Amino acid sequence: MSRHLEEIARLDPLDDHQRIVHLMTCYEFPFDITRALEMALFRTFAVPSVSALLASTGELFERPQKRYDDTDLLVSFLMEDGYDSEAGKRALRRMNSIHHRFDISNDDYLYVLSTFIYEPIRWIERYGWRPLHPNERLAMFHCWRAIGSRMAIRDIPEDYDDFERWSRAFEREHFRLDDNTRRIGEAGRDLFLSWAPAPLRGIGAQAIYAMLDAPLLDAFGFEHPSAGMRALVDHTLRARARVLRYLPRRRRPRIRTKQAHRSYPGGYDLSDLGPPRDGA
Question: 30-55 burial, b if ≥16 CB within 10 A, otherwise e?
Answer without folding.
Answer: bebbbbbbbbbbbbbbbbbebbebbb
